[in-house]
Amino acid sequence: MMLQGWRWYGPNDPVSLDDIRQAGATDVVTALHQVPIGEAWTRSAVEERKNLIEHSQPGRSPLTWSVVESIPVPDDVKRMGGKATRSIEAWIASMEAIAAAGIKIICYNFMPVVDWCRTDLEWELPNGAKAMRFDQDRFAAFDLHILQRPEAPAEYSEAARLRAKQVYSEMTQADIDVLITNIASALPGSTTDPLTIPQFRDRLQQYRGINSAVLRQRLSEFLARIAPVAEQLGVMLTLHPDDPPRPLFGLPRIASSAEDYQALFDAVPSKANGICLCTGSLGVRTENDLPAMAKRFAPRIGFAHLRATKREADGLSFFESDHLDGDVDMIAVLKALLAENRTRSPENQIVFRPDHGHRMLDDLADTKRTNPGYTAIGRLRGLAELRGAIRAIEHAG
Ligand code: DNO
What does this protein do (predicted)? Predict the structure, then answer.
């Protein structure tokens, strides 16, 4: 049985631990979100959070904190690699604190400047629920007209520039402010700093000369430091794919395809070097065959985000669909993960979580505080669909 996980943002999350239990999840995925990026997590802070999750309500169905998502990788590591000594040492100290508490899976990403990126957080679906969306024209409007990145015009076709101009001309100041917040201010759970537009421009400047080969090298240097320690501690490091899986703002992204992951595993063969199989992120790229990737990288999968996205007509825009109804063949992915699990011992089973649920039913109330994509009800629907599919596959043998 795959372990059913649920991302929890900690004591301030409007979704409670009992909500998680009622959704049927057993494994909590969380981080010490209150610790500033680059600072080491202490053993006592990790222990305290673990106690809160596992022992705060005696008699309740047990929950286990099994995955840390994420220890943020500070910006200087992406720019300087192995030379960012202090940041790497702090990262290792956090990993040691986590391992000391018995947590064995760590999710991280290596996206420069912006973590996951959406233009719309409340896009209405035909059934009245709200989904997150990446609209390529709105994104280009931000890049060309709000950020006004000097190299941007040369990177879009003339038709794309015209569409972006049109979209921008129809935006009110309030629309512009929302777009800036969505893209630059770091969405919940992000591992990058919130930035103002001037800070954003400044950050991009600092990445001059960092192409994909250099960024790959930086990631290898980082892993060369952390993987041996992880191996010793019995920790699996799972690299989350780029979201969306392509370069943004002229910045390289290097965890977007099967070739990217193959290059990573070739560069650092350590068995601690793993993947967080995020079907929603990778699924945005047409050539990513997710069932094939799940099979090819099976032994390296420590953790999975089983959500689905649906590409729109332009091939670049997409929205978050229902978990079983996106572009990805979710049933085939589940079959591959279940086959891998059968080869593993009970303590090494893959943890998966539903992801980016819709805002729906009672969560639509104006008074309801919800984190974008992390509503209780939308994710409960996603998890229930996945669980049903898993049971059916297992039953069919
Ligand atoms: C968004 C998430 C990301 C993810 C990090 C992993 O919903 O998938 O914030 O946690 O990129 O490090």
Answer: Catalyzes the dehydration of D-mannonate.
What pLDDT score was predicted for residue 66?
A: 98
115 CA from centroid of ligand 1 (Å):
7
- In short, whether 109's Cβ falls inside 6 Å of ligand 1 is yes
Q: Does the beta carbon of 373 lie inside 6 Å of ligand 1?
A: yes
With respect to residue 66, please indicate whether it lies within any of the assigned structural domains.
yes
Q: Per residue in 331-385, pLDDT tens?
A: 999 999 999 999 999 999 999 999 999 999 999 999 999 999 999 999 999 999 9
Query: With contact defined as beta carbons under 8 Å apart, do 7 and 69 qualify?
Result: yes
Q: In this structure, are residues 289 and 309 in contact, taking their beta carbons and an 8 Å threshold?
A: no
Single out the residue of 14, 12, 18 nearest to residue 31, CA to CA: 12
Number of folded domains that form the chain: 1
In sequence order, the 6+-apart residues with CB closer than 8 A to the CB of 396 are none
Predicted local distance difference test score (pLDDT) of residue 186: 84
| Sites in the chain below the pLDDT cut of 50 | none
Tell me, yes or no, if the pTM score tops 0.85: yes
Ligand 1 binding pocket includes 189 (Cβ within 6 Å)? yes
How close is the Cα of 243 to the center of ligand 1, in Å? 8
Task: Note whether residue 137 is domain-resident.
Answer: no
Domain assignment of residue 114, yes or no: yes
**Which residue numbers are catalytic?**
240, 278, 305, 355-356, 374
Asked if the structure places residue 315 within a domain, the reply is: yes
Q: Which domain holds residue 63?
A: 3-118+202-396
CATH of the domain at 325: 3.20.20.150
Q: Which residue has the tokens 């599919």?
A: 389
- Neighbouring C-beta atoms of residue 166, cutoff 10 Å: 11
